[in-house]
Description:
Structural class: alpha/beta
Strand order of the largest sheet: 2-1-3-4-5
CATH superfamily of the largest domain: Response regulator
CATH topology of the largest domain: Rossmann fold
CATH class of the largest domain: Alpha Beta
Shape: elongated
Number of domains: 2
Distance between the termini: 57 Å
Order of helices and strands: EHEHEHEHEHHHH
Number of strands: 5
Amino acid sequence: MVSPTPMTMLLVDDDEVLRTRLARAFERRGIRVLQATAYEEAVAQLAAGSPSMAVLDLKMPGQSGLELLKTLKQRSPGIQAIVLTGYGSIANAVEALRLGAIGYVTKPADADQVLDAFQKGTAAADEADIAYKPLSLAAAEWNHIQNVLSDCNGNISQAAKLLDIPRRTLQRKLRKLAP
């Protein structure tokens, strides 16, 4: 008796600890995992393994997860992709969905959260297309501040300098709740 071919997943993340932990968890669930740390390696894995699913880190050295998502969808239109992000930006999530991802998960994530996102994303895609709703100016500003602050590893002084605003102004903006 021939056993069914396991599903294949492309897992791309530059965080080695997270990537290997997720890969082991997926493999325990019977999913064959192809791992990559960056764009070029992921494209090579795509050609070699023909995965049906992909989990992509949003921010990686070199080209971003969104650029990788575009390439994956061009080369393998049927692939289902989830975007992993440590930056819970609504703008990034909307852009990922617009490019063809079926969902996104914020880090730290476990295998069950990612698999749930695949199930929910597939169900939502079956029901209706995702409508684009532009962000308010306040939400766009909040997301930009959060991304810059994250790029500065939480250093408020450095983020204020990059944003070209006084440090105290940035601190006041951060005390407010997200729009």
